[in-house]
Amino acid sequence: MAGKKGLGRGLQALIPEYREEEAQGVETVQIDKIFPNQYQPRKHFDEESLRELADSIKEHGIVQPLVVRRQGTGYQLVAGERRWRAAKIAGLKEVPVIIRDLDDLQVMEIALIENLQREDLNPIEEAKAYKTLMEQFNLTQEEIAKKIGKSRSVIANSIRLLNLDDRVQEMLIEGKITVGHAKVILSITSKTLQYEAAKKIVEDGLNVRETEKLVKTLLSRSEKTKEKRKDKRIDVHIREIEDNLCSLLGTKVQILQKGKDRGIIQIEYYGEEDLTRILDIIYGFEK
């Protein structure tokens, strides 16, 4: 897999690959004493795949030990959560483990790199993992990029996916839309329009190029709607001023807009006497 080469130090640099000669370092612990890693970025596990692995474990056992660290009276998983889940399904009471002394950041790194190397994370899980590294461990995007061997722009673009509407994120997780679709949808700031675009993509089976056209249409329509609302608010305000002037001058008054900040006020009069009356009212305000 081409992407594995570039993952920073790689998993083996953080957890040396298990070898037969290391067997004396493997311990057996009760499966119920092991609990999941809170920093595990992977949240979705395919049930069918787990059952298949459980069948394999029943027949061959766990070939590669889990990696854990001691916490209290139990053990926190560092690597191998899929094997641990499958072992529970298989009904194992005890599992082989390698116990490591690791801090929280190392645990998070290992969990993230393990899943990235195996391409086990969906795009949203990956984005949330990067965000956790930034928020909980105060790492910059540049520092994360160096640790996992990716460019800073890749990290930034991944995190941007979290700006999608929650419903659109779920579609991405379920594979109904691709990351390519999602990147185009991100040009829409309205969550409602994002969801509308995503639904249209799924319903019509749109590709990325077609999605670009769809988004352009939606944005144009949204802009026109905003302008109409704005014009409507201006119209209401202008009509109110016209009514006030009509009442004040006792004649028909029209305000004609000639642009954003320009216009003409038309005051009708019916004879010289009516004009004098109107002018007296206007001049009266100057005194």
From TrEMBL:
Cellular component GO terms, alphabetical: chromosome; nucleoid
This protein's UniProt keywords: Chromosome partition, DNA-binding
InterPro entries reported in the protein's UniProt record: Chromosome_partition/occlusion, Cro/C1-type_HTH, HTH_ParB/Spo0J, ParB/RepB/Spo0J, ParB/Sulfiredoxin_sf, ParB_N
PROSITE patterns documented for this protein: HTH_CROC1 (PS50943)
Chief site of localization: cytoplasm
Any one GO molecular function term: DNA binding
Gene Ontology BP, a term: chromosome segregation
SMART domains, alphabetized: ParB (SM00470)
Location(s), subcellular: Cytoplasm, Nucleoid
Family stated for the protein in its record: Belongs to the ParB family.
UniProt-recorded name of the protein: Plasmid partitioning protein ParB
Taxonomic lineage from the root: Bacteria, Bacillati, Bacillota, Clostridia, Thermoanaerobacterales
